[in-house]
């Protein structure tokens, strides 16, 4: 079993347990449930922002523990002050040491789009994303059927959430693309074996229709790469480890942004 299969298997049992403990009705009681969301498109195309989607990630299956010594409020406020267009917070606990509570803590102190970074395999998680304060959900093409992508995206839209579809190759892109998506993210990391190449973004860019935001995800560690990705038509740049590996990730981002 590759890592992605393991994550999905674990996620299925996690979601089944969560569903038993908290009903949909309970989720809908959240104060966030009726709150208006921040538009991913608007913030990513705002001229006074960097296009960077800055990620809070303590640990990953590929790198192990990256940073377990920082507070989510401090890091996300630092990212925001450094010009992040959006924030990404891992909520998977078993593989990434994230918590749903991390996302809600980031929500309380930031007024820019907040992406729930998790492995969505069930409608319940989308309703839950809204209830914990997210603005954007991630749908990973590698683990979802076109039918699931369609129904999950429609549900997200009905809740006012933006949808980021993640693809890693042309086949995933072609089978998954549909009108309820807001952004297409090209993951430069192959989630099945962890190899990374920014080339993946350049190769797929021309196949992404104009109407969708283009995001390049993972393995970005150099401001020059962002300049080149912008030239290739990318609007957004998802960066995690390069900032999180530093003692003060917000400060690391502020330094990085000076060279853009
Ligand atoms: O830390 P990096 O290499 O900058 O990557 C960030 C982000 O793209 C990565 O965390 C990611 C991309 N797609 C995912 C899906 C699930 C979990 C994590 C991810």
UniProtKB/TrEMBL annotation:
CDD domains the UniProt entry points to: IGPS (cd00331)
GO biological process, one term: L-tryptophan biosynthetic process
Key word Transport present: no
Keywords: Amino-acid biosynthesis, Aromatic amino acid biosynthesis, Decarboxylase, Lyase, Tryptophan biosynthesis
Residue intervals passing through the bilayer: none
A matching Pfam family: IGPS
Top EC class, one word: lyase
SUPFAM superfamilies: Ribulose-phoshate binding barrel
Recorded coiled-coil stretches: none
Sequence ranges assigned to domain Indole-3-glycerol phosphate synthase in this UniProt record: 4-255
Catalytic activity: 1-(2-carboxyphenylamino)-1-deoxy-D-ribulose 5-phosphate + H(+) = (1S,2R)-1-C-(indol-3-yl)glycerol 3-phosphate + CO2 + H2O
Similarity section: Belongs to the TrpC family.
NCBIfam families: PRK00278.2-4
Entry protein name: Indole-3-glycerol phosphate synthase
Gene that encodes it: trpC
């Amino acid at each position: 079993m590759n890592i992605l299969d393991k994550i999905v298997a674990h996620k299925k049992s996690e979601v089944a347990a969560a569903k038993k403990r908290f009903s949909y009705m309970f989720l809908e009681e959240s104060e966030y449930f009726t709150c208006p969301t921040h538009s991913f498109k608007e913030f990513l195309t705002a001229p006074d922002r960097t296009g960077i989607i800055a990620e809070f990630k303590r640990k990953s299956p590929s790198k192990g523990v990256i940073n377990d010594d920082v507070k989510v409020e401090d890091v996300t406020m630092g990212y925001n002050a450094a010009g992040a267009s959006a924030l990404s917070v891992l909520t998977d606990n078993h593989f990434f040491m994230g918590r749903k509570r991390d996302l809600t803590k980031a929500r309380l102190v930031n007024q820019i789009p907040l992406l729930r970074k998790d492995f969505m395999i069930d409608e319940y998680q989308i309703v839950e994303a809204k209830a914990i304060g997210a603005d954007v959900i991630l749908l990973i093409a590698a683990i979802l059927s076109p039918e699931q992508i369609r129904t999950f995206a429609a549900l997200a839209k009905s809740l006012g959430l933006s949808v980021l579809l993640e693809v890693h190759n042309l086949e995933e892109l072609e089978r998954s693309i549909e009108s309820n998506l807001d952004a297409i993210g090209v993951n430069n990391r192959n989630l099945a074996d962890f190899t990374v190449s920014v080339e993946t973004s350049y190769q797929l860019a021309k196949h992404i229709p104009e109407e969708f935001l283009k995001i390049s995800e993972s393995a970005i560690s150099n401001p020059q790469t962002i300049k080149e990705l912008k030239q290739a038509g990318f609007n957004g740049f998802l960066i995690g480890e390069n900032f999180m590996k530093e003692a003060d990730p917000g400060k690391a981002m502020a330094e990085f942004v000076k060279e853009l």
